[in-house]
Amino acid sequence: DGGITQSPKYLFRKEGQNVTLSCEQNLNHDAMYWYRQDPGQGLRLIYYSQIVNDFQKGDIAEGYSVSREKKESFPLTVTSAQKNPTAFYLCASRDTGLNSPLHFGNGTRLTVT
Amino acid sequence: GENVEQHPSTLSVQEGDSAVIKCTYSDSASNYFPWYKQELGKRPQLIIDIRSNVGEKKDQRIAVTLNKTAKHFSLHITETQPEDSAVYFCAAIRRSGGYQKVTFGIGTKLQVIP
């Protein structure tokens, strides 16, 4: 969706370095989500936030951190503690009202060597 | 928490045949079930959704059915075409209130053979 921007599209880092993935939305959605996608693994939830200054761990939060200082922004930091950081990362947002789907960004492919 | 199981993980059909993908969910508080299509290297895109007060919904060649009692919902694609080849994900979202964790199935890779 044009309303969610992830940058950069491709990101390369050396092992041991922290890296921050950007996610910005102009849809005025309250909730934002980060998913990790590996081949054959589907979409696994890392963190999500339903309101500014509040966020919850998903299923695979270890080695990741987030912040939600502004409604439109939900950056994800992949720390050196994440054992297998190479993956495709998808950010999404949605209205927290009834029956609202997720809207996804185009994703960031992170490669750590 | 919610658990969504999806099967099959891969599905090959001849062009023109139908394809069916099935999902089950565990949280009775889930009341909204979207389906997403993801083409290679792209983001997932919503293709159809269903609310818990509806048993079936159709949109051209795509339909979704929901059985609340069995906590089961399915995606049906008729007259499949090569451009239907993609990975399809089901999801379950609980009703508003509380933390709204969105849980996805593992995905089904659909291949339509011309």
Quick description:
Chain A has 113 residues and is an all-beta fold. Chain A is built from no helices and 11 strands. Chain A is 0% helix and 51% strand.
Layout of secondary structure:
The complex is a heterodimer of chains A (113) and B (114).
Chain A: E1 4-7, E2 10-13, E3 19-25, E4 31-38, E5 42-51, E6 54-57, E7 64-66, E8 76-78, E9 87-94, E10 103-104, E11 108-112
Parallel strand pairs in A: 2-11
Antiparallel strand pairs in A: 1-3, 3-8, 4-5, 4-9, 5-6, 7-8, 9-10, 9-11
Chain B: E1 4-7, E2 10-14, E3 19-25, E4 30-38, E5 45-51, E6 56-59, E7 62-67, E8 72-77, E9 86-94, E10 103-104, E11 108-113
Parallel strand pairs in B: 2-11
Antiparallel strand pairs in B: 1-3, 3-8, 4-5, 4-9, 6-7, 7-8, 9-10, 9-11
Residues in helices of chain B, as a percent range? under 10%
Class computed from helices, strands and strand pairing of chain A: mainly beta
Shape by Cα distribution of chain A = globular
Give the SSE order of chain B as H and E letters.
EEEEEEEEEEE
How would you state the average pLDDT of chain A, rounded? 92
Number of helices of chain B: 0
Explain the overall architecture.
- The complex is a heterodimer of chains A (113) and B (114).
- Chain A has strands at residues 4-7, 10-13, 19-25, 31-38, 42-51, 54-57, 64-66, 76-78, 87-94, 103-104, 108-112.
- Chain A is mainly β.
- With 114 residues, chain B is mostly beta strands.
- Chain B has strands at 4-7, 10-14, 19-25, 30-38, 45-51, 56-59, 62-67, 72-77, 86-94, 103-104, 108-113.
- In chain B, strand 4 and strand 5 (45-51) form a beta hairpin.
- Chain B is globular.
- The model of chain B has no long low-confidence stretch (mean pLDDT 93).
- At the A-B interface, strand 4, strand 5, strand 9 and strand 10 of A face strand 4, strand 5, strand 9 and strand 10 of B.
